[in-house]
Design goal:
Layout: H1 3-9, H2 12-26, H3 29-44, H4 53-77, H5 79-82, H6 92-95, H7 102-122, H8 125-146, H9 153-157, H10 159-172, H11 179-202, H12 204-210, H13 215-219, H14 221-240, H15 249-271, H16 275-303
Helix pairs in contact: 3-4, 3-10, 3-16, 4-7, 4-8, 7-8, 8-10, 10-11, 11-14, 11-16, 14-15, 15-16
C-alpha cells in the first residue's frame, strides 16, 4: 500500500499523533523544552524583580522556539551523516518522509525570527540577542563549523545552553549578568560535554562509521570517561558556589543531590567505560540539570 493511500485510510487520531511525533523529533523539542527551562533558571537566580509571568512564559517559548529552529536545521544539515548512523537513520529527511528543500529552511528561519522577535518584544534587545546566539552556536558553530572537523565541537558548541541562562538574566536586568547567573551559565558550559560525550560513548560505532570526530572516537572510551569525570566534578563544585552569594537551602539541596548522582555515575563510567555505564551517566546528567534548575526556580517562588 502506498504511503498516500495508507495516510487516507489512517484514523485522524493516529495521523495527529504521527504528526506530533514527527514535529517533536524533527525539532528536537525534548532538549528544546529543557533549554526553555534553563532560561527560567536564569531568571530565578538573578537579583531584582522578575518580569510578569506572561512575559516569562513568552520568553521560555521564544527560547524553546529558537532551540527548535536550530535543532531542525541540525537535522537538515546532517542528513548525510544521519543516513550512516543506526541511531538516526529513521529521521524524516533520511527516510524521505520530508523533502530536504528550501521550503524547510524558510520555515525554520521564520521560527527563529519569530522567536527572537518575541523575546525582544516582551523583554529587551539583549535578552533577544542571547536567544539568537544560543540558536546560532548550535545551528552554525557546532553543526556547520565544528562537528565534522574537531573533537572540540561539543566543547565550544556547548555554549549554546549558556546563552539561555544569560537570556533569562538579561530579562531581569539588561547589562552584565550578576555573579550567580554568570556562574550558572558556566555550569551549563561545563555540563554539555559530559552529557554528550556519554551519549558518544554509547553510540561510538555510529560516530566512527560516519567519521564524526567525537571524543571517544578520537581518544578512546577510557580516556574520554576520565574527561567526563573531570568535567562532572568541576561543574558540581561550580554549581555549589552560588551558596556563597546568597542562594538558599532549596537550591543547595538540588545542586548537591543532582551533583552527587552525576559524580557517582561518572566514577562508575571511569572505572568501567561500558555502554551501560555511559547510558546511566547520560541519564544522570539530565537528572542533575533538572534538579538544579527546578531547585533554583522553586527557591525563587517559595523564598522570593
Amino acid at each position: 500500500m502506498s504511503r498516500s493511500v495508507a495516510s487516507r485510510s489512517e484514523p485522524a487520531g493516529s495521523r495527529a499523533l504521527r504528526a506530533f511525533r514527527l514535529v517533536f523529533g524533527l525539532f528536537k523539542l525534548r532538549i528544546g523544552v529543557v533549554i526553555g527551562l534553563t532560561a527560567l533558571g536564569g531568571v530565578a537566580v538573578s537579583p531584582g524583580p522578575a518580569p510578569a509571568g506572561w512575559r516569562l512564559a513568552i520568553l521560555a517559548l521564544a527560547v524553546t522556539g529558537a532551540a527548535a529552529a536550530a535543532g531542525g536545521f541540525n537535522q537538515y544539515a546532517e542528513r548525510d551523516l544521519d543516513r550512516l548512523m543506526n541511531r538516526t537513520r529513521r529521521r524524516p529527511f533520511v527516510t524521505g518522509e520530508l523533502a530536504a528543500d528550501r521550503r524547510f529552511l524558510w520555515l525554520i528561519g521564520a521560527v527563529l525570527v519569530s522567536s527572537v522577535g518575541a523575546a525582544a518584544a516582551v523583554t529587551n534587545a539583549l535578552a533577544a540577542a542571547y536567544v539568537f546566539l544560543g540558536a546560532f552556536f548550535y545551528g552554525v558553530v557546532y553543526t556547520v563549523w565544528l562537528k565534522r572537523r574537531t573533537w572540540w565541537n561539543i566543547v565550544i558548541g556547548g555554549a549554546a545552553g549558556s546563552f539561555a541562562v544569560l537570556a533569562g538574566a538579561a530579562a531581569v536586568s539588561p547589562g552584565l549578568p550578576a555573579a550567580v547567573p554568570a556562574i550558572l551559565a558556566g555550569v551549563l558550559f561545563l555540563w554539555t560535554p559530559p552529557h554528550f560525550w556519554s551519549l558518544a560513548i554509547l553510540c561510538r560505532d555510529d560516530y566512527a562509521q560516519a567519521r564524526v570526530p567525537m571524543l571517544p572516537v578520537v581518544i578512546g572510551d577510557e580516556r574520554c570517561a576520565r574527561m567526563i569525570l573531570a568535567h562532572t566534578v568541576a561543574l558540581t563544585a561550580l554549581a555549589l558556589v552560588p551558596l556563597a552569594y546568597g542562594m538558599g537551602w532549596i537550591y543547595g539541596a538540588g545542586a548537591l543531590i543532582g551533583g552527587a548522582l552525576f559524580v557517582v555515575t561518572s566514577v562508575r563510567l571511569a572505572r568501567h567505560p561500558s555502554r551501560q555505564a555511559a547510558r546511566a551517566n547520560f541519564l544522570a546528567s539530565l537528572a542533575q540539570l533538572g534538579l538544579l534548575l527546578i531547585a533554583a526556580i522553586a527557591e525563587r517562588l517559595m523564598l522570593g
